[in-house]
Write a structure and sequence with these properties.
The chain has three helices and ten strands; from the N terminus they run βαββαβββαββββ. It has 162 residues and is an alpha+beta fold. The chain has a single domain, classed as Cyclic Phosphodiesterase, Chain: A, CATH 3.90.1140.10. Strands 2, 4, 5, 6, 7 and 8 form a six-stranded antiparallel beta sheet that branches. β9 and β10 form a beta hairpin.
């Protein structure tokens, strides 16, 4: 059994723009920019081969992702950049992947995790203006392993969007 997720990759231009945000504040475990992605669906314990077979059957439409307008929080501890425009893709993915889902879906919230806060005080970056628009033309199936240096992500498969 493995942990895995389906995601939208963050385009290099968007990644470069987000790197301009001040990410040095203490008390926040900052995500590395190489790990930035937009999770569409997460699988806690699944067979990666079964996930891949279903993943390759996804027939979702291309979309336009829109960042912002401000850095905010998700679930009190996650400092994130909202990403709109992906709900339709998420619905199509979840429908196809239903046989491998646990059935307890949280509502889809498109976002890029910048970091995790250890305390719930205000972060200096919270409320910072962010903007950007990008074409979403593919999905990734990613296997996630936890090791001594954090999460390691390996792309298992890529699926173009229609």
């Amino acid at each position: 059994m493995t942990r895995a997720f389906i995601s939208v990759p963050v385009p290099e231009l968007i990644r470069t723009n987000l790197l301009e945000l001040e990410r040095t504040e203490r008390g926040i475990s900052w995500s590395s920019s190489e790990q930035w992605h937009i999770t569409i669906q997460f699988f806690e314990k699944s067979n990666i081969e079964k996930l891949e077979r279903l993943f390759l059957q996804i027939e979702a439409s291309k979309a336009v992702g829109t960042l912002g307008p401000r850095v905010t929080r998700l679930d009190h501890r996650i400092l994130m950049v909202p990403v709109g425009g992906l709900s339709g893709v998420a619905d199509q993915v979840r429908t196809t992947m239903a046989p491998q889902s646990s059935g307890d879906h949280l509502p889809f919230v498109g976002h890029i995790t910048l970091g995790r806060m250890k305390a719930t005080e205000n972060a200096q970056l919270e409320g910072a203006w962010v903007e950007g628009v990008f074409q979403v033309d593919r999905l990734l199936l990613v296997e996630s392993r936890i090791g001594p240096k954090g999460h390691t992500h390996t792309v298992v498969a890529t699926q173009p969007l229609l």
